[in-house]
Amino acid sequence: MNTKTLTTDDHSRDSAGLQYVYPVISRRAGGVSVGINLNPNNACNWRCIYCQVPNLKRGAAPPIDLVLLEQELREFLHELLHGDFMQQRVPEEVRHINDIALSGNGEPTSAAEFLPVIELLAKLKHELALPEHIKIVLITNGSFLHQQNVQQGLRLMAQHNGEVWFKLDRASRAGMRLVNDTGNSMERVHKNLLHALSLCPTWLQTCWFMLDGKPPSEQDEKDYLDFVRGLAQDKKQLQGVLLYSLARPSMQEEAPRLAALSEQQLEIFAARIRAEGLAVKVAGDL
C-alpha cells in the first residue's frame, strides 16, 4: 500500500492500491472521505471540461465485483478504525472518517449494481458499528435518477444518513453543453432533481470557474438564480448549494482555457444565492 501522506490536493483513485476504494482528505469536511469508484474504466456519460480524470471516455460503469468491493471496503474501514493508517498517512488534525462517498471516475449511478452497492454500504455501517454521523454521499450528475433501481438506492441512503450532491454547473442547455458536454434539457434536469429531493436530502454542487479569462456571465448567474427560485415555487426544499472552484488541473483538452475564481468572486455569487433563501457552503475545492 502507498505510504505517502494524504493531502487535500491529492484525490488519486489508487492511493490505497485498491480497485474500488480510495481515501481522500476532504477540504470541505476537514476529515477523511472514503471514496467508492464504481467507474474504474474511466467512463462517464458526461465530459465536464474541468474533469480531473485522465483518459476519460464516454460510457457507463462496468460490471461491479460486489464480493471484491465488500472485501476492500470492509478491510479498509477496519484499518481506518483499528489500524495505523490514520497515524501513518493522515495529518493529525483530520484523523476522523467523515463520509463514504460514491464518486470516482465517472457517473456512479450508471452502474447496474447501484442498489446492491447502497445495500452493502448500509450493511457495513451497521456491522462495523460506524458512528452515526458518518454519511453516505452520492456525487452525481443526476442523469439516471429516473431509474427505479437508483431511486430505491436513494430511499435506502436516506435511512442511513445519506446525502445527494446533484451537479448543476450551469442552468441552461447551452451552458451545460459548454461546461458538461451533454445535451440534457433543463426540463430533464429539473425532473431528475425533483426525484432526488423527494427521496433523500439533496445539495446542488456547482463548479464556478474562469473560461478563456472570463468568469461566468451575468446570464449564467441569472439562469442559475431563476432555476433555484423555481424550486422554491415547487415547494421542494434543497439543503443548499455547495459552491466551489478549481483546485486541481483538468485532464481534458480545455485545461489551458480554465482557471479558478477567487474566494471573493465565489462569495459575491454565494451572496446572490443566499438572497434566494438558500444555504451556501463555499470551498476552493470540494
Provide keyphrases for this structure.
eight-stranded mixed beta sheet, 34% helix, alpha/beta, 286 residues, 19% strand, two-stranded parallel ribbon, 12 strands
Question: Could you explain the architecture of this structure?
Answer:
There is one protein chain. Strand 1 and strand 2 form a beta hairpin. Helix content is 34%, strand content 19%. It is of the alpha/beta class and 286 residues long. Helix 1 (66-82) runs parallel beside helix 3 and helix 3 runs parallel beside helix 4 (148-158). The chain is globular.
Number of helices: 8
Roughly how much helix do the residues carry, as a percent range?
25-40%
The strand order across the widest sheet is 1-2-5-6-7-8-10-12
Sheet having the most strands = 8 strands, mixed
Mean pLDDT value: 90
Number of DSSP E strands = 12
* Uncertain runs: 5-13
> Order of SSEs, N→C?
EEEEHHEHEHEHHEEHEEHE
- What spatial form do the alpha-carbon principal axes imply? globular
Overall radius of gyration: 18 Å
Terminal Cα span: 25 Å
Q: Report the structural category.
A: alpha/beta
- Approximately how much beta-strand content do the residues carry? 15-25%
Topology overview:
Layout: E1 21-26, E2 31-36, E3 43-44, E4 57-58, H1 66-82, H2 85-89, E5 97-102, H3 114-127, E6 135-140, H4 148-158, E7 162-167, H5 173-180, H6 186-199, E8 202-207, E9 209-211, H7 218-233, E10 240-244, E11 258-260, H8 263-274, E12 280-283
Parallel strand pairs: 2-5, 3-4, 5-6, 6-7, 7-8, 8-10, 10-12
Antiparallel strand pairs: 1-2, 9-11
Helix pairs in contact: 1-3, 3-4
